[in-house]
Design a protein that fits this description.
The protein is an alpha+beta fold and 101 residues long. It is 17% helix and 32% strand. The protein has helices at 3-6, 10-13, 26-34, and strands at residues 18-21, 44-47, 53-61, 67-73, 82-85, 90-93. The strands form two sheets. It has a four-stranded antiparallel sheet, with no helix packed on it. A two-stranded antiparallel sheet has the order 5-6. The longest helix is centred in the N-terminal third of the chain and has 9 residues, at 26-34. The protein is globular, with a radius of gyration of 17 Å.
Length: 101
Amino acid sequence: MTQSQSELSPYDTGARCQPRLWQPNREAVTAAMRSGEAEGIGNVDFTNDEDNTVVTVHVSRGDDGMYTVHLVPMCSEDQIRLEFHGEEDVVMIEPGTSRLA
């Protein structure tokens, strides 16, 4: 492996999607709140190596204290696989096999 290859990140190689925060700083969050676009606060787009958004994600906390991870696919749903990494094991949801209510 050459020196330049070892310096490539998983984002550079396409192994991981690049995170892009909708509001990258406090000023942008404040501006979103003032403009009535607070619903988008905390959203993160994950883009592929062609700079296309693959999925938009955010985490919210309900009144019951439970956290919910929201995934909005921006590609075909059959291209998305979910993995939940717990302390004991990994649960995988394959495309088309499960739909959560």
